[in-house]
# Entry
Amino acid sequence: MSLNSILIELRVPKQDECSWVASKKNSVMYVRLKFSLLLICLLLVQFMPLIGQENVQLRDIHFDPNLTEEQNRFLNRQAHVLLEYSSGLLEKYPPLSKAQEGRESALFLLDAILHEPHAMKRPPVQRFLKDRLTNAINEIAYTKVEKGAKIWKLYNHSFVVRTSSVTIAFDLIRTQSEENMRKLVSQCDILLISHEHGDHWEMEIVRAFLEQGKPVLAPPSLFRDDDAIYKQVTHLERRSHWAEKIAVKGDKVDLEVVTYPGHQWGNIENNVSLIKTQEGIVVVHTGDQWNMNDFEWIDVVGEYFEVDVLLPNSWTADIARMANGVDPKVIISGHENEMGHALHQREPFWKTYLRKQGSVLLPEKDKGYDYPLVMMTWGEAFHYSKQDFH
# Structure
């Protein structure tokens, strides 16, 4: 609606339309009426675009035919309030290797919010993810690590591990702007990709690493349809307990890398990567490991290496058995609340929690394990120190 049409609709009547107006033309009442009508016109003109945008937005987020626009508004407001409350608890109870009831409550609350079928399309959830990852990328940019390792959990099974000598990225995917993505890549020295599924790698990130002369490690099955990329990517031999040296930072730093021959389900190659840094920090990232036959080597990893940190996919086959085989100092779970997954496959934190406790409530009837567990949501970080885990 144009300004002219608004003024026409709300104009002060002429004398031949309402004679009483003319007789009161100079009255205070008439002046006030004119002022009020003009103010209404200006307000309508000012806020008409916002009203229109709200209607468009509501139509865009009207996902469920059983929900009205008013109900969608309610769920948006509820998500906003609960995410704010959860964020406050997460700040009050930061990631630790010991149980914190307040922190567990915050993570379980996130589960409830994120298991609404269309949660990821709701603006408060999108802002929550964007803000947390932006803050994490900025934190990575200014953080220096003198001892131990600092480990950031980004989205899905994406982790960044920094020691005093190197910054290692696992399964990075792009959930940020081009600027933030390149800012993150510039802070990392090497990228490891576990397997071919699109929630564990993106070509833009791979190209950014290669353009900056930084190594990208991936399974042999990945990039076979792109000869130029395939030749630039490093495909280490998938061999149990056998370490290869990889140079990073212009050949100034050497890493020892073991590429365990893991699998997702039956035949999908999934690199389970073990990295040992110059400081002697050993990290294992499992990708989407799930294959019972692979316990042939999983059961004895701890006999070959003293593992500090295990980064497993939370739904891996028999996490208790994996923990006993790898024998890490601490476990930091990943892959919870992947919003691209179907609702029943969107692994919640409460399942990760019950898998550690051991529970008959889970279909797998997990036995539980005694290793320290750190559960983190998007953008959080944990500082690992060997001295804390003797």
The CA atoms of residues 10 and 40 lie 9 Å apart. Residues 1-60 have pLDDT under 50 and may be disordered. DSSP finds 13 helices and 13 strands in the chain.
